[in-house]
Write a structure and sequence with these properties.
Blueprint lengths: L8 E2 L20 H13 L5 E8 L2 E9 L16 E2 L3 H16 L9 H4 L11 H5 L15 H11 L14 H15 L3 H10 L8 E2 L3 H4 L5 E3 L3 E3 L6 H5 L9 E3 L1 H12 L16
Parallel strand pairs: 1-2
Antiparallel strand pairs: 2-3, 4-8, 5-8, 6-7
Helix pairs in contact: 2-6, 2-7
């Protein structure tokens, strides 16, 4: 993996005044320490490169690219607009806020039984949307059918016996967010990628964030590694997400450091982005 892929590093540092009542104190930010850290990681072969972004609720403090998009010394340098496969950050940047947006609009409730939106779970009265969000569903990951990945995900998860009492056991599993992505599609009346683009990415001014980058954006993507030798810019690395067509609740989003910085600032500002806009702003 490290032979082919660049790593996106996003550092968000809270400083006094960034949040109301925040008493956190930190040492003054020193960019030379970041330079040294990245240079050592690249020269040591730990990563090929990356982008470091430091910010607060008020704006960007530091943003700088390092290294190349792959270990090959002839590969192109990373730039501030390099697009990365952000893998499981899809859960944080797309699926979870999409669920919360639907809940804010009272189109769903976090304590809805999963079976309300996924009839495949008709025999599971105990499983709530909240349990999927918090990885306390008692579900474990499993192999999906290559021919019918989403139906097999629904059927396989519904057939599982919960491990312990639902709500009492934390176990991180992609299937939780695969199911949440399907709930977004059904409750939001749009596929997850379209719902997230319209309701999360666009209001947050995340212009380079999407599932399945098109040809033009793919040319700016750091390549993902699939198998021993394949290097595929613009194609999601996660195998389950690839089976699901590149759009899944647990993985599949591509983004830039700048867009992720804007997302984090939106969160720090309680749902409002620059200019008072944002997916959870009062006027949106």
């Amino acid at each position: 993996m490290k032979k082919y892929c660049a790593i996106l590093i996003l550092l968000i540092i809270l400083v006094p005044g960034a949040c109301c009542g925040n008493a956190l104190t930190i040492q003054p930010f020193r960019s030379e320490q970041v330079d040294r850290l990245m240079e050592e990681a690249i020269s040591g072969g730990l990563i090929a490169g990356g982008v470091v972004l430091v910010g607060t609720a008020k704006g960007i403090v530091f943003e700088k690219p390092y290294g190349r998009v792959a270990a090959d010394p002839l590969s192109r340098p990373i730039t501030l607009d390099t697009v990365f496969d952000i893998a499981s950050l899809t859960k944080v940047v797309a699926t979870a806020p999409a669920i919360l947006k639907l809940a804010e609009e009272r189109r769903i409730s976090l304590v809805d039984p999963v079976k309300k939106w996924l009839p495949e779970f008709s025999q599971r009265d105990d499983l709530l949307i909240w349990h999927l969000l918090t990885h306390t569903s008692g579900l474990d990951d499993f192999t999906l059918s290559a021919a019918n990945p989403m139906p097999s995900a629904l059927a396989g998860a519904a057939a599982q016996k919960p491990k312990g009492v639902v709500g009492n056991r934390f176990r991180y599993a992609d299937i939780n967010f695969i199911l949440l992505g399907e709930i977004v599609s059904r409750a939001g009346a749009l596929p997850l990628d379209q719902f997230a683009a319209a309701n999360i990415f666009a209001p947050s001014d995340m212009r380079d964030t999407c599932f399945n980058p098109g040809k033009e954006r793919a040319e700016r993507c750091a390549p993902t590694a699939v198998g021993e030798h394949a290097v595929l810019p613009g194609e999601v690395q996660d195998s389950l997400a690839r089976q699901l067509g590149g759009v899944a609740g647990h993985a599949g989003v591509f983004s830039t450091a700048g867009d992720l910085g804007r997302f984090c600032m939106m969160i720090l500002n309680r749902g409002e982005g620059r200019g008072g806009n944002g997916p959870f702003a009062p006027n949106h």
